[in-house]
Amino acid sequence: MKPMNEEHLAILRRHMVEVIAIYADLASEELGKAALDERVMAAMLRVPRHLFVPAQAAPFAYQDTPLPIGFDKTVSQPFMVALMTDLLAPQPHEAVLEIGTGLGYQTAILAELAGQVWSVEIIEEFASHAEALLQRLGLSNVGIRVGDGSRGWPDRAPFDKILVTAAAEEAPPALLEQLKPMGRMVLPVGTDEQLLTVIDKDSAGQFEARKLIPVRFSRLEAA
């Protein structure tokens, strides 16, 4: 059987976005709305997920499932990527900090929507791979460094939005500190039982957390 071409992959990507829309509708009671932001859905349609997974996993890239990327890590399922991005609501004028670059898929989605993305990855091989791929795709508004994500990126702080793609028992204090007043953080919180959580910081620096749906992420690693 011959390999899939770009036209085939584009059809599968459209199907992936249609499936995301169905899942969003099914989760409407928990999310408080029946559809995700159109800008997010358009970004999901543009970014070629098959490039952000190992070659052997590329045929499965547009199924709504996590996929292994090495080092016992996975790229999140497309619905979860879209949902977390929607909850974060990155805007074209904003600076976003991402914790957990992986191979760069979520980073690419954020780069399509935000003004600037700074991403921290603890695994050096992932960081270098993601950086090269994002540059090849022309996403020049991304900076990546290797380090302990729980410490954030103090030199680039403060941030309008922060997205954490690994679970912690509680929101890391350094990340809360690096979030601007009126900023927002989205992350999975918990150990055995994790909940997708949205944390908003008000103008006085006080925090309000909203817990949404059960999720399963790898643990946030410290260097």
TrEMBL record:
Gene Ontology molecular function terms on file: protein-L-isoaspartate (D-aspartate) O-methyltransferase activity
Residues annotated as catalytic: S76
Pfam families linked: PCMT (PF01135)
Keywords from the named record: Cytoplasm, Methyltransferase, S-adenosyl-L-methionine, Transferase
GO CC aspect terms: cytoplasm
EC number: 2.1.1.77
Catalytic activity: [protein]-L-isoaspartate + S-adenosyl-L-methionine = [protein]-L-isoaspartate alpha-methyl ester + S-adenosyl-L-homocysteine
UniProt subcellular location: Cytoplasm
Keyword Ribonucleoprotein assigned: no
CDD domains: AdoMet_MTases
First-tier enzyme category under EC: transferase
GO biological process, one term: protein repair
Record InterPro entries: PCMT (IPR000682), SAM-dependent_MTases_sf (IPR029063)
The family this protein is said to belong to: Belongs to the methyltransferase superfamily. L-isoaspartyl/D-aspartyl protein methyltransferase family.
HAMAP family registered for this protein in UniProt: PIMT
Role noted for this protein: Catalyzes the methyl esterification of L-isoaspartyl residues in peptides and proteins that result from spontaneous decomposition of normal L-aspartyl and L-asparaginyl residues. It plays a role in the repair and/or degradation of damaged proteins.
Protein name, as recorded: Protein-L-isoaspartate O-methyltransferase
Organism field: Rhizobium fredii
Lineage start: Bacteria, Pseudomonadati, Pseudomonadota, Alphaproteobacteria, Hyphomicrobiales
Gene name of the encoded protein: pcm
